[in-house]
Specification:
This protein has about 230 residues and is α/β, with parallel strands linked by helices. The protein has helices at about 1-10, 75-90, 135-145, 170-180, 205-220, and strands at about 10-15, 15-20, 25, 35-45, 50-55, 65-70, 100-110, 115-120, 125, 150-160, 185, 190-200, 225-234. It has two domains: about 1-120, no CATH class; about 125-234, no CATH class. The two termini are about 35 Å apart.
């Protein structure tokens, strides 16, 4: 019954047509209550050229935004709308509230109620796929060659997240941490204190899978791993 309830409260009307939005599911959300809000909806709509329909007419710049995205949409379908709304808020000159945040609304299955995932400071960009053939040592050498690294630093590295490897991301990051534990120096010229991770997402990944990955990454507690605010869609 709780799932039916969640769907009912997210039902809205557009041109007198009832629409239902299926929320992405999350477990143990860190945020379960947000006050002073206004909602936006990104529906899955097969009648549209990009299969999406954006309803943002109730958004108020000075409030916290709850962005409700249908979990069936892909990132290539949903992210352009999300980026458009973010830019509107960031570039607003009137009624701007620096304390107002943006959240994705989710169905928190651990409590049978709504949960929220913040994305206020995330910057989305569209890019080409990254070269996954370069190993960690080669990446260090490349940055040293281009004078992009200091003698003691957090190494900025890309993390490629696809439908095929999305369930192994935590293990991959753990292997990076273990590498640091074995040797604090990957290069003779540079000591690596940790990693600043830029996220690269495969564009055909569903919004449900995106939320699942983001939720897991938010639970990584390590002073050796920093997840940057840069997210690239290819």
């Amino acid at each position: 019954m709780r799932y039916i309830y969640l769907l009912i409260i997210l039902t809205c009307f557009s041109c007198n047509n009832e629409r239902v939005l299926y929320l992405p599911e999350i477990e143990k959300a860190e945020v379960t209550e947000v006050l002073d809000v206004s909602p936006a909806y990104i529906f899955y709509d097969e009648t549209q050229a990009d299969s999406t329909l954006l309803n943002r007419k109730n958004l108020i710049i000075s409030t916290n935004w709850l962005v409700n995205v249908d979990k069936r949409l892909t990132l290539k379908q949903a992210i352009p709308h999300i980026k458009f709304m973010q830019d509107k808020k960031r570039n607003a000159e009137m009624h701007k509230n620096e304390d107002a945040k943006n959240y994705f609304t989710c169905n928190d299955t651990s409590i049978g109620n709504l949960g929220f995932l913040e994305f206020t400071d995330v910057f989305y960009e569209f890019s080409e796929p990254i070269d996954t053939s370069i190993n960690l040592q080669d990446l260090v050498a490349e940055k040293l060659k281009n004078n992009q690294a200091s003698t003691s630093t957090f190494l900025e590295i890309p993390l490629d997240i696809t439908n095929n490897n999305k369930d192994k991301i935590q293990q991959k990051l753990q292997s990076y941490i273990e590498l640091l534990a074995l040797s604090t120096s990957i290069s003779e010229d540079m000591v690596i204190n940790g990693y600043a991770i830029d996220l690269y997402f495969e564009g055909r990944m569903s919004f449900q899978d995106y939320i699942s990955v983001k939720s897991k990454l938010s639970k990584i507690k390590s002073d050796k791993i920093i997840i940057t605010n840069n997210e690239f869609i290819y």
